[in-house]
Write a structure and sequence with these properties.
- The chain is of the alpha+beta class.
- The protein has 2 domains: 4-92, Alpha-Beta Plaits, CATH 3.30.70.120; 95-232, 2-Layer Sandwich (Alpha-Beta Plaits).
- The chain has 8 helices and 9 strands.
- It has helices spanning 16-25, 42-48, 64-77, 99-106, 136-144, 161-168, 188-199, 221-232, and strands at residues 4-12, 32-37, 54-63, 86-92, 95-96, 124-132, 152-158, 175-184, 208-214.
- Strands 4-1-3-2-7-8-6-9-5 form a 9-stranded antiparallel β-sheet.
- Helix 5 crosses helix 7 (188-199).
- It is globular.
Length: 233
């Protein structure tokens, strides 16, 4: 069975077009790209051959079989092993909000549904919501109705418009906002359902949502305090 992963590419910003074209040629037409700046400690930057310059962060959803072939091509064609080019890593995807979203994100990659969560003992999950710009308040209002505590918004640009029309029957605009919400595992399904119902692909927000397992946390006391208050009501 080929599992799903959230692939994150952090590269020098000058290489954005080159990497985007490479991924497109490899059949990964659906992506979200945002901008960043290197902030790691100098010894970490030195280890990876990176610096504190401007970066691009490119997100894809990819299956395990595709990753095995792509990893070789990243080294062969994109010189990923050369210091200063960038790093690429995977995070397991635990669930996806609906079959149309799954088909769109995988863009034709074969995938066999198995156990919902790759990591069974996780206490928290990260919900990743990708939506058209200007609808984060609508999404957060829906999430708060089922006791989500808050989120973080990142502006980005998406690709794969043709894939959206093919797999989802809707037209998406390239300007995107990514919303990250950390929640308890047992609240995940309620929040995902609320977002899909009020801001999903059939709405102007055009939101898609999936979740990633969080293996460890720090600073989550606020969520724990809110949960205790809800139990007292």
């Amino acid at each position: 069975m080929s599992k799903l992963y959230f692939m994150v590419s952090i590269i020098d910003r000058s290489l954005t077009k080159r990497f985007s074209s490479f991924y497109e040629a490899e059949g990964l037409s659906v992506s979200v790209t945002t901008l960043g700046v290197g902030t790691a400690a100098s010894e970490i930057l030195d280890y990876f051959g990176l610096d504190g310059a401007e970066k691009s962060v490119i997100f894809h959803v990819i299956n395990g079989d595709k990753w095995r072939s792509l990893k070789h091509q990243l080294r062969l064609k994109m010189s990923l092993d050369v210091p200063g080019v960038g790093i690429v890593f995977l995070i397991p995807v635990s669930s996806v909000g609906g079959i149309k979203t799954l088909n769109y994100l995988t863009a034709g990659q074969e995938f066999q549904k198995g156990e919902e969560s790759t990591l069974k003992d996780t206490k928290f999950e990260l919900l990743v919501v990708i939506a058209n710009q200007g609808y984060t308040e609508l999404i957060m209002d829906a999430a708060r109705e089922v006791h989500a505590t808050g989120g973080t918004v990142v502006h980005a640009k998406g690709t794969g418009i043709q894939q959206a029309e093919k797999f989802m029957g809707v037209t998406l605009v390239p300007e995107k906002e990514m919303l990250f919400i950390v929640t308890r595992k047992e609240q995940k399904n309620d929040i995902m359902s609320a977002i899909m119902q009020k801001a999903g692909t059939g709405s102007k927000a055009g939101a898609i949502v999936f979740s990633l397992p969080v293996t460890d946390t720090a600073g989550m006391r606020m969520i724990e305090d809110v949960d205790e208050e809800m139990l007292e009501i």
